[in-house]
Specification:
By secondary structure, the chain is an alpha/beta fold. It has helices at residues 87-100, 120-133, 150-153, 168-175, 227-233, 258-264, 270-281; strands at 3-5, 8-12, 17-22, 35-41, 44-50, 56-60, 65-70, 74-80, 103-109, 137-139, 157-161, 201-206, 209-213.
């Protein structure tokens, strides 16, 4: 499925694109899903079956979840020199990618604006930490050298994710001109972008590669994950997770916690540990 508009979906076959609805009360169909349809008229159809997914990238709040894309093989998280980037948002998306077995690529866009926004130097330095963790990091200008991304996109179903205004749609248009996704200027006064992408949509990069453009977001709930999944999502924590005194250690204040000991010895990033603690303490169970 290449796009979802509320209760209406675009399903691409080898020969045509059908405008479809779902049968009965079936919910949760999402961009990237492989589905079986029953054609009903010229260009119309009914989604009868959603095939098993290899991955599902979504966010979950206390009483609500938002499915973003299915069967993604690569998260391409886009940040920019401006607007100000949220490292916590990056962390949250990387955790979901780790949980779903999705590889991650971090892209710093608008690198050509570095001289105009000296504060961008701090962004560059902060992102070097993620490269040290093993995440590929590319610095690009969507309007000048977007093609440098091509080797990383080939053979992948890549999800473009990040805040509004970082240039996801501009990158997509540079790589796939036929996409013609709407773009908009950011507000320097508000330090934010405007939503121009309102729903996830899949575009073919080549015969074996696709890209999914997604709406920008400012928040990303992780209520679908338990404590163990959250800790596992921080890749630098993994060497310490099975070394604690207690098997059910939450790594917050428990005695004999090897993770806290490593942090005290300067082996872990304090901001990332604080992010983990915030996420663990924020876990809620609906109707509890």
């Amino acid at each position: 499925m290449v796009a979802a508009y509320g209760r209406h979906f675009e399903v691409e076959t080898a020969h045509t694109v059908y405008s479809c609805v779902v049968r009965g009360k079936k919910k949760g169909v999402v961009c990237g899903d492989q589905v079986e349809i029953l054609p009903t008229a010229d260009g119309q159809g009914i989604i009868e079956t959603v095939l098993p997914r290899a991955s599902l990238f979504y966010r979950s709040e206390y009483f609500r979840e938002k499915l973003i894309a299915a069967n993604v093989t690569q998260l391409v998280f886009v940040l920019a020199i401006t607007p100000t980037c949220s490292l916590e948002l990056l962390d949250r998306c990387l955790i979901v990618a780790e949980d779903q077995g999705i590889r991650s690529l971090i892209v710093l866009n608008k690198i050509d604006l570095l001289d105009q926004y000296p504060e961008g130097q701090a962004v560059v330095q902060n992102l070097l930490f993620y490269r040290e963790l093993g995440y590929p990091l590319l610095e690009v200008s969507a309007e000048n050298n977007a093609r440098s991304l091509v080797p990383r996109l080939t053979g992948q179903i890549s999800l473009l994710a990040g805040q509004s205004g970082v240039g996801k749609s501009t990158l997509l248009n540079a790589l796939i001109p036929s996409a013609r996704q709407a773009t908009a200027e950011i507000s320097d006064a508000l330090d934010s972008g405007r939503h121009t992408t309102t729903h996830a949509r899949l575009f073919h990069f080549d015969a074996n590669s696709s890209m999914i453009d997604s709406p920008g977001f400012q928040e990303f709930g992780l209520q679908q994950l338990d404590e163990a999944a959250l800790a596992w999502g921080f890749v630098e924590f993994r060497p310490f997770l099975d070394q604690c005194k207690f098997r059910n250690c939450r790594h917050i204040s428990e005695p004999g916690c090897k993770l806290l000991q490593a942090a005290q010895e300067g082996m872990l990033n304090s901001r990332r540990l604080a992010c983990y603690h915030k996420l663990v303490k924020g876990i809620k169970k609906p109707f509890s």
